[in-house]
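Thread: Newbie trying to understand structure tokens

Hi all, I'm a second-year student working on a class project, and my supervisor (Dr. K.) asked me to get a predicted structure for one chain before our next meeting. I've only ever worked with sequences, so writing a 3D structure as a token string is new to me. If someone could post the tokens and maybe explain what I'm looking at, I'd be very grateful. Here's the chain:
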Amino acid sequence: MTNLLTRKKEQKISAITIFAIATFSLHFLVLLILLSQGLNIRQLSLRKPPNFVQTIDGQPINKLDELAREPQAIRQFVSKTMTSIFNWSGTLPPQNIEEVAKPKPDPGILVRTPNGGSQKVTTSSWVASFAISEDFRKGFLSVIADMTPPEVFAINPNQAISAELIIKRVYPPVQIAPGQWRVGMVADLVQTKKIDGQKLITPFNKDLLVRAVDYFPSPSSSSSTDLQKAIYSSRTDKLEIYEIRNLCLIDGYSNGNNEQANPCANNSFIR
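---
Reply by user tm_fold:
Sure, no problem. This is what the structure looks like when written as tokens:
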């Protein structure tokens, strides 16, 4: 009987010892993991901020001159920005699979118009306008608001209108100063009534002044909203538009036989 009690006591002590060793081992393992994570975080904090790499069709371009930009990259920037500003669908860009099938209506964003009133611009226009220089953006948005039909935001499909910028040509950029270029664009702004497909086509030929800009800091991915990320993406090309003028076309330009745009003298679209 005494031997049996002794064995049970030894087994109990042995189990407690094993449990204590296992607990200590787990704590030690957790400590190692925390130390490893701490070292990784410190290494990340000591890294230099990433530099943007200019790309064309996803391929990086190596440039030593901070103000230099590839002509094709400038043309792509102009096309992307102007298309985003002047494509008015009446719906928000989808953020998930469900919204692809059933997009949310665009509530629009109110801005001041040139006549002193208030009118809406589409959310995509407002976001893309951050590719415009800050001193030019406010007046530019006012003009866009004045151009945007209220029917773009109509819930009733019998009244709804959409718009699309059809770009026919973007001329090769002409350098006018270090880090500054003039880019001609020939396009049509096509407004369509959704109920019957009736179209209104307006020539939209513009001469855009573009310049190189410095690094734009990336927002924290954990705390940024989808809207903030979209705004940030409009600055990743390290370019901005700082003036838009009307573009005069002659037969040679209209037919695409000339490689240079012909800006209208003293005829600004908006400055």
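A couple of things are worth pointing out once you decode it. Residues 251-258 have pLDDT under 50 and may be disordered. The CA atoms of residues 31 and 147 lie 62 Å apart. Feel free to ask follow-ups in this thread.
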